[in-house]
Amino acid sequence: MAVPKVNENLLGELESMGFPxxxxxxALHYSGxxxxxxxxxxxxxxxxxxxxxxxPLETIDIGIDSDETFHMTEEMERKAQLxxxxxxxxKEEEEKRLEREKEKVRIRSGKELIEAKRIAxxxxxxxxxxxxxxxxxxxxxAREKIRWKLEQDKLxxxxxxxxxxxNLAATKTSTTDEQEKQNxxxxxxxxxxxxxxxxxxxxxxxxxxxxxxxxxxxxxFQERVGSLKGGVEFLxxxxxxxxxxxxxxxxLPRDKVKIAVLNSAGSELKSAITNPFFGLLSRKxxxxxxxxxM
Length: 294
Hints:
Blueprint: H1 8-16, H2 21-30, H3 36-46, H4 74-163, H5 168-171, H6 175-204, E1 213-215, H7 219-226, H8 231-237, E2 241-243, E3 249-251, H9 259-274, E4 281-283, E5 289-291
Helix pairs in contact: 1-2, 2-3, 3-4, 4-9, 6-9
């Protein structure tokens, strides 16, 4: 299909009146390509057609070479101006309608964005609350575990004291035994004090890795804590983990540092140092000493 051929003179006249090319071509084509007046009348009758501004695709050859002179009447000019004004008003109204629709979409999008942001923030707040609650529960369980272990140990020592002969102190007349007992008490106190230092350093400086990493073959650590049963286990209750990377260490990862647990452990250690029922020892068969933390 091809665009129909129309009288070029008539087409130029319509375009000079302000009509688009497609509308002018369509008007001439369907009005018979006879005169300006017929074309303008056709536009008036069909201005609301959905396809009025679509180029017709038919081939009609009517008076292509006409030399007729055209005379614009006042009525034709009035109709042409009326059509032009209607088209302009319609275009302006359509532009205003589209602008209102855009504004509605923008407002709706803004509201949706604000609501989505609010929901995201609310979900984040709920997740943080849940995480803090889990951390509190974990710390509480850890503190209760330490306290229960130490309380069991306390009861066990009290039971052993109750079962000991009342005249035990009187029967131990040997200077060697008395000296050995004093040495044992001193070792326990040093162990408790060393543990208190390890725990306190981490509690005060949780971001310092040097306080969260203990070399197990360190002579001082072995003498005061490592050689006594229960010392390493106590540190494990506080969150330390055994690792063999680069040697054998006790390591407390930063994300597992629980200040409340460390403070609770420190409080229990201080109580152990000052409580006469809390720092007792038991002797293993090989003669080494045990700290009853577990």
